[in-house]
TrEMBL record, chain A:
This is ATP-binding cassette domain-containing protein. Residues 564-584 are annotated as: Disordered. The keyword Transport applies. The keyword Cell wall biogenesis/degradation does not apply. Residues 182-420, 438-672 form the ABC transporter domain. It is a multi-pass membrane protein. It holds the Pfam family ABC_tran. InterPro entries: AAA+_ATPase, ABC/ECF_trnsptr_transmembrane, ABC_transporter-like_ATP-bd, ABC_transporter-like_CS, ABC_transpr_CbiO/EcfA_su, ABC_transpr_LolD-like, P-loop_NTPase. It is found in: Membrane. One of its GO terms (cellular component) is plasma membrane. The lineage of its organism: Bacteria, Bacillati, Actinomycetota, Actinomycetes, Micrococcales. One of its GO terms (molecular function) is ATP binding. It comes from Agromyces agglutinans. It comes from the Bacteria.
Length: 673, 261
């Protein structure tokens, strides 16, 4: 229980400093900074007119006055720091957790648990929104408030769901029938009449791995949510018909009570981590039902050994890479030896080696441990030969399906070699005739003591799409961010930019030359409707109203201007319906294209795109590829960082591989530098 | 309406009435028998935390869905952070903006509990617990609950924000008034022109209180609070409401359905 965590203390010190500073500012404003000591500023006292005549403003500011103002704030500031020290040593949320287990005040106690867990997330949200703001070229604190609110709400709901499916706040513990992991007949699931999905028949037997596929937005996650109980018990969706897990009625038994035999791996595990260390995260479901710490440790050690992730023990969950996070989430989901394991898009964030490892692991969990595993995924090729059953969502129905036809296992060496040959390392001769659009020269990025990007240098030519690939954590994102916002060392020279400009003017000029669509592109969505988002982007970039909106529609139509297309008469209605929607309610593909339109709208010639295909189905990927190609053909250049080899092969004119921060020739072609 | 929900409403209203009595003790004390009058301030101080507990118990049962609790927890954290950051900048209570928007989006009960928990959490952080804490809890809870009781018919963007802003002005001044009222005798003591006199007629005490409240906060902090609340609602109101309403809460949907009938 006693373990020093620096984050709460840092937060407390920041709050205390802020508190003292506001007090001093307040005193200066309201004539409270005078007194003994040297006079710093001898401002006149301004008496307010009636009825505020007893209020004086400004007045002399002295060293003694400022000291007194700061000192008067110290007692409370010290209390804030002291509470921070206690908080850094004692995990107070565990005390709330005791009250949250039951009793008449369980609701308030649970809300306080979540509030407590939200504080670090709040700081994280502020950091991410600030980065997004500078990527969009905006300034001012006003731009931050609503996005921060949205971030924290999204995260808190993810945490609440992950706590719920792991038994947090459960009063009882239901036992499931191992022979009947999941059974669905004549069921219909949906969200408040707006959308529904039919599940005529679904049977998952023990020791089987089933893959559920279907386009983005078709409802793969909703099927998993219906089985985990999240749909009806947390998201307040609707379900009718027979839905059973472990022989129990899913609609009657809440997820927290089936945590002992239903394991869930969320789509974005890093968003849903409820504890702070890997050990606590894996042992969470045991700890919340009061298992003795010594037994929790033993069970965590056992599962960690089974997955071969002993090296991750003791790590802070926030430092995990995407691949590591997926493994930890799987470990946390199987620590209770579940009968049914539900896994949502486990491959989305992973590089090829991690994908192969994860597929193998899921296969072993099904076939060796006898768990019924259901995986929702549209990267299905790798599961051929591992999966026992296939399901597909077709026209709003979940139906049995055949394995994907003609698919090779995704990581077959033959495919990788073919990709490498198709993508020359050298700049194609046709492109070299023009001077480079941008020159990246010795760019170096350090995070603390580690070098994330080590002297990256390359030239970027008009009309080309350059793909930077490499494993998770190689420094691809850091490289793109450095090109967009500047780095510790090295520089990026643009053909169109005067080398002598610097400071704020250089930053503004840079924004017109280079734009980044980051990995978490949703961070860049600030407004409450698509139309407002587009107007805002036009305003920031100083472009005529409608520029971004038109660009967005063009991207959706994959380069075909919608207004000129007479064969699609419903488009105008579709478009106006789209304009009034909340940006975050769009599909993943639409959201990514919207951010692309916003970022390209400022007229930047160099477009940087980080992991653009995450969560996209093949048709959305094709749209995205067309959009990037269109940008290059209009005389721009695109840099794509991705570990999606198929996508890389489909768009790349040229490829570079990044390994441990060093940029070099692609793997399999020539010797690595 | 579920039977449990009816009980909870009755209990919340009863608790609020008793709490209102504790707030107004200086004005109610003359109505008590003479030998009980001396005990009135202490009774008020003791009643406030008890009724706060009863009121929280009353609404707590309505919040069991993980999603509602997640939202309540998050907004409590945001409100507490905002309140702690704004300590000492008297009157600039951005927390009112949040209470009003959350009460409007998710209903009176949610607004009430958010106000209570925000005060509870921020007091835990700053160590600012004291006799005033339950009074602050009720006052903030009422601000949130009041926003949840405003007419649902007003839905169009500008009209809704205008209504919330008008409510924000009323709530800002009312908050100052009720917080001054119970504290007034403790703050000034006796012997000044505006001191509380237990035996004096109601009219005279009211006049003294009006003067005390006017000089203490009404024309300064409360005005500032009203201005910042209106400004906050005008600048962030629409987008923040949209952000909150995207989270479909079970009980908020029930509120909507009920009002629509």
């Amino acid at each position: 229980m006693l373990r020093f965590r620096p984050a709460p203390l840092r937060l407390a010190v920041a709050l205390a400093v802020g508190f003292v500073a506001t007090r001093v500012v307040y005193r200066v404003l309201f004539a409270g900074a005078g007194g003994s000591g040297a006079v710093l500023i001898d401002a006149p006292v301004v008496r307010l007119p009636s009825p505020f005549e007893h209020v004086a403003m400004f007045g002399p500011i002295t060293t003694g006055g400022l000291t007194a103002a700061a000192l008067s704030a110290l007692p409370i500031a010290l209390v804030i720091v002291a509470v921070g020290v206690v908080n850094a040593l004692v995990d107070v949320s565990r005390l709330f957790a005791l009250g949250a287990r039951g009793g008449p005040l369980a609701g308030s106690a649970r809300a306080l648990v979540i509030a407590w867990a939200t504080f670090p997330a709040l700081a994280e949200a502020v950091r991410r929104v600030r980065l997004a703001r500078s990527l969009r070229g905006e300034r001012g604190a006003g731009a931050l408030i609503v996005p921060i609110l949205e971030h924290t709400i999204e995260r808190s709901i993810a945490i609440a769901a992950s706590m719920e499916v792991r038994g947090f706040g459960a009063r009882g513990r239901a036992e499931g029938d191992c022979e009947r992991p999941a059974e669905v007949r004549d069921a219909e699931i949906g969200h408040g009449g707006e959308w529904s999905l039919a599940m005529p028949s679904l049977h998952l037997g023990p020791g089987s791995l089933t893959v559920l596929r279907g386009p983005t937005g078709s409802g793969k996650s909703t099927v998993l949510d219906a089985l985990s109980g999240r749909l009806t018990h947390i998201d307040e969706g609707d379900a009718a018909g027979l839905l059973e897990v472990g022989g129990l009625d899913r609609l009657a038994v809440p997820p927290r009570e089936t945590a002992g035999f239903v394991g869930v791996v969320a789509q974005q595990p890093r968003l849903a981590f409820a504890a702070e260390t890997v050990d606590d995260e894996i042992g969470f479901s045991l700890a919340v039902r009061g298992v003795a710490p010594v037994i929790v440790r033993a069970r965590v050690a056992e599962v960690v050994e089974r997955l071969g992730i002993e090296r991750l023990l003791g790590r802070d969950v926030r430092t995990l890479s995407a691949g590591e996070a997926t493994l930890v989430a799987i470990a946390a989901a199987i620590v209770e030896h579940p009968i049914l394991l539900l896994v949502d898009e486990p491959l989305a964030d992973l590089d090829p080696p991690a994908r192969a490892a994860t597929i193998g692991l899921l296969g072993r969990i099904a076939h060796e441990a006898g768990v019924a595993v259901l995986v929702a995924e549209h990267r299905t090729a790798g599961f051929v030969g591992v999966a026992d059953g296939w399901l597909e969502i077709v026209d709003g129905r979940v139906l049995p399906a055949e394995p994907p036809a003609g698919a090779l296992p995704a990581e077959a060496p033959a495919v990788a070699a073919a990709v490498s040959e198709a993508c020359p390392v050298a700049v194609p001769a046709a492109l070299e005739q023009h001077p480079p659009l941008a020159t990246v020269d010795g760019l170096t990025v350090r995070h603390g003591g580690t070098v994330a990007v080590d002297r990256a240098s390359f030239e970027l030519h008009r009309g080309e799409i350059l793909v930077v690939d490499g494993p998770n954590g190689a420094g691809k994102s850091s490289l793109l961010t450095a090109i967009a916002l500047g780095a510790d060392e090295g520089e990026v020279r643009f053909a169109a930019m005067d080398a002598t400009t610097n400071g704020r003017r250089a930053r503004r000029a840079r924004r017109r030359l280079v734009a980044l669509v980051p990995d978490r592109s949703d961070d860049l969505l600030f407004a409450d409707t698509v139309a407002a988002e587009c107007r805002r982007a036009d305003r920031t970039a100083g472009r005529p109203r409608g520029t971004t909106w038109t660009r967005f529609l063009e991207l959706l139509g994959a380069g075909v201007p919608l207004t000129a297309d007479a064969s699609r008469p419903t488009t105008a209605t579709d478009a106006s319906a789209l304009a009034t929607r909340h940006p975050r309610d769009l599909s993943t593909g639409q959201r990514r294209l919207l951010v692309l339109a916003i970022q390209a709208g400022a007229g930047a010639s160099v477009l940087l795109v980080d992991e653009p295909t995450r969560g996209l189905d093949p048709s959305a990927r094709a749209m995205l590829a067309a959009a990037l190609r269109g940008h290059a053909e209009r005389g721009g250049a695109v840099v794509v960082a991705t570990h999606d080899r198929d996508f890389a092969a489909s768009v790349a004119d040229r490829r570079l591989t990044m390994t441990d921060g060093v940029l070099g020739a692609p793997r399999g072609v020539g010797a690595p530098s | 309406m579920r039977p449990g929900s009816r009980w909870s409403t009755a209990l919340l209203v009863a608790g609020s009435v008793v709490a209102a009595g504790a707030f107004a003790w200086p004005l109610l004390a003359p109505a008590l028998p003479a030998d009980a009058q001396a005990a009135a301030p202490w009774a008020a101080l003791a009643l406030a935390p008890l009724t706060a507990l009863v009121a929280v118990l009353a609404v707590d049962g309505a919040f069991r869905s993980a999603k509602t609790l997640a939202l309540l927890g998050t907004l409590t954290a945001v409100a507490a952070a905002v309140r702690v950051a704004g300590t000492g900048v008297g009157g600039v209570e951005v927390v009112f903006v949040l209470l009003i928007l959350a009460g409007r989006a998710f209903g009176a009960r949610f607004g009430f509990l958010l106000g209570v928990l925000a005060i509870g959490l921020s007091s835990t952080i700053t160590g600012g617990f004291g006799p005033w804490t339950p009074f602050q809890m009720f006052a903030c809870g009422w601000v949130g609950a009041g926003a949840g009781l405003l007419p649902r018919r007003v839905r169009s963007g500008v009209a809704e924000i205008a209504m919330l802003a008008a409510y924000g002005v009323v709530a800002s001044y009312a908050f100052g008034l009720v917080m001054n009222l119970w504290f007034w005798p403790f703050a000034i003591g006796s012997g000044t022109g505006i001191s509380y006199e237990p035996g004096a007629p109601l009219g005279r005490n009211l006049a003294s209180f009006a003067l005390y409240s006017l000089t203490t906060s009404t024309i300064t902090w409360d005005t500032l609070r009203a201005v910042t609340t209106v400004a906050g609602l005008a600048v962030f109101g629409r987008a923040a409401l949209a952000a909150l309403r995207r989270v479909r809460l079970p009980h908020a949907r029930r509120v909507m359905a009920k009002r629509a009938e």
